[in-house]
Design a protein that fits this description.
This protein has 329 residues and is α/β, with parallel strands linked by helices. It has ten helices and 14 strands. The strands form four sheets. A seven-stranded parallel sheet has the order 3-2-1-4-5-6-11, sandwiched between helices. Helix 1 packs across helix 7 and helix 4 runs parallel beside helix 5. It is globular. It starts with a strand and ends in a 5-residue tail after the last helix. It binds uridine-5'-diphosphate (UDP). Uridine-5'-diphosphate binds next to helix 6 and strand 8.
Length: 329
């Protein structure tokens, strides 16, 4: 089948493209990416690449007309909680309006299956220890709200137009491809694990811990880190699920295990064998205290099995990538 990967040059999208090419020889991959945060170097040479923006309906329509797309996997979004608090309208334009155009073009070309990268940020601050898909959604940032709106747009396209979607609510994605050829490289970097690894790479002196007065066991925020390989496996299962007639649904992707910011720093010290310094600073606006997933539903419905449960595996594979690419791509 022909799979359109939107955002296929980004961190998660590029791993998805690699996985399709390495593991699914019968499938063909077409990538759309505006290269705003993605990297040309992360584009697999066997994928067909279109450089352009999904808010450009004429461009996107051409991609659909030139390729008989069976299913779309949509990764292209702005994805930083902190930035979204400063520039909410950019998030609504890129994410929400981008989705509007994508759904219009899909509808016009009679392509109705989409796997979507959603986020744990849709839940916001919760008062349960483990989040299930039934936990109420109360986003605490424009980023989280944008993902929730995008899910609702797909829901109504299902009800009214016969679309089928799978929305995957990621918790904290970490790690890199086993080859170390592709990995997480943002500029500037904002995500915890790559930032922590910048200290042993001698790119920064210390890590700033954003708040140690949260209601958690050590006062720092707890997140559920999930290995990129496991995350991508769920996307390809979701593609098969939709192609086999599965109904629209939403799934959490996490490991049900939380790690605090301080624990991540300690584990990174063990992995890199480097004395990573840290300093507590103020909270980052929009950050919920704890986000830990129940992934029972993805296990039951998609048959998803997690291979990497130890966050040290994720930090090690990220470290393998960063050592090979100390300056990013
Ligand atoms: N964090 C931190 N220092 C940093 C970057 C992140 O303390 O330099 C914290 C952040 O406040 C959050 C956790 O690490 O509690 C994970 O943040 P990240 O940006 O990696 O992912 P998010 O949870 O925002 O998706």
């Amino acid at each position: 089948m022909k799979i359109l990967v939107i955002g296929g040059a980004g961190y998660i999208g590029s791993h998805c493209v690699y996985s399709i090419i390495e593991n699914r020889q019968d499938d063909e991959v077409i990538i759309v990416d505006n290269l705003a945060t993605g990297h040309k170097e992360a584009i697999h040479e066997k994928a067909k690449f279109y450089h352009g923006d999904i808010t450009d309906a004429v461009f996107l329509d051409k991609v659909f007309k030139e390729n008989k797309i069976d299913v779309v996997i949509h990764f292209a979004a702005k994805s930083l909680v902190g930035e979204s608090m400063e520039k909410p309208l950019e998030y609504f334009r890129n994410n929400v309006y981008g989705m509007q155009v994508l759904l219009e073009v899909m509808h016009a070309n009679n392509v109705k299956k989409i796997v979507f990268s959603s986020s744990a940020a849709t839940y916001g601050d919760v008062d349960v220890d483990v989040i299930s898909e039934d936990t109420p959604t109360n986003p605490t940032s424009p980023y989280g709200e944008s993902k929730l709106i995008m899910e609702k747009m797909m829901k109504w396209c299902d009800i009214c137009l016969g679309f089928r979607f799978v929305s995957l609510r990621y918790f904290n994605v970490a790690g890199a491809h086993s080859s170390g050829e592709i990995g997480e490289a943002h500029n500037p970097e904002t995500h915890l694990i790559p930032i922590v690894l910048q200290v042993p790479l001698k790119k920064r002196d210390h890590v700033s811990i954003f708040g140690d007065d949260y209601p958690t066991f050590d006062g720092t925020c707890i997140r559920d880190y999930i290995h990129i390989e496991d995350l991508i496996d769920a996307h390809l299962r979701a593609v098969d699920y939709l192609m086999n007639g599965g109904k629209s649904d939403i799934f959490n992707l996490g490991t049900s295990k939380g790690n605090s910011v301080k624990e991540i720093i300690e584990k990174a010290k063990e992995v890199t064998n480097y004395p990573i310094k840290s300093e507590v600073v103020g909270r980052r606006p929009g950050d919920p205290a704890t986000l830990v997933a129940s992934y029972d539903k993805a296990s039951k419905v998609l048959g998803w099995k997690i291979k990497h449960t130890d966050v040290k595996d994720m930090i090690s594979s990220a470290w393998n990538f960063h050592k090979k690419h100390p300056n990013g791509f």
